[in-house]
Amino acid sequence: MILILAAIYGVLIALVVKVDAAWWLMALLALPTLPALFDILKDTSAGLRLSQDRLEWYTGKRQGALELSEIEHMQFDTRWDFSVRVTAFLIGNKKVRLPYEAIPPHRTFEVALQDRGLTVKRNHFTVF
Asked: Which fold, 46-124?
């Protein structure tokens, strides 16, 4: 992420210096990068831990945990941008969406969940 931001800022600065682009326009183009810069400066971390009886996750200041016995099934939804969102469907018709940034590689995570006896459902290219 640091390299990507450095490349973006380098290109914007080069446009101002070499092509005499309007600095305010380049600053406007840099605005969408501020959340990523903030995460780098804040050193935000995210992760997930799966034990034999518990699923725990954290991302920034948010955290959560579920007992595996509470989970009816896990659902992996592949979106149109090829990202995979994971939702835990609990007994009693509640659902908990796991934060995207805390999820490990989805194929490995799916196998780990199945090894612990959980049912995993996959939906490909869903709209919602």
From this structure: PH-domain like (2.30.29)
Q: Please state the domain extents for the chain.
A: 2-42, 46-124
| Dihedral sign of CA atoms 27, 29, 31, 35 in order | negative
β partners of residue 88: 74, 96
pTM listed for this prediction: 0.69
pLDDT value of position 116: 92
pLDDT at 128 over 80: no
CA distance linking residue 45 with residue 70, whole number of Å: 26
Report, as an integer, the average pLDDT of 36-41: 88
What whole-number distance in Å separates Cα of residue 7 and Cα of residue 87?
A: 35
* Length, in residues, of the chain: 128
What mean pLDDT is reported for the chain? 91
Distance separating alpha carbons of residues 47 and 36, to the nearest angstrom: 18
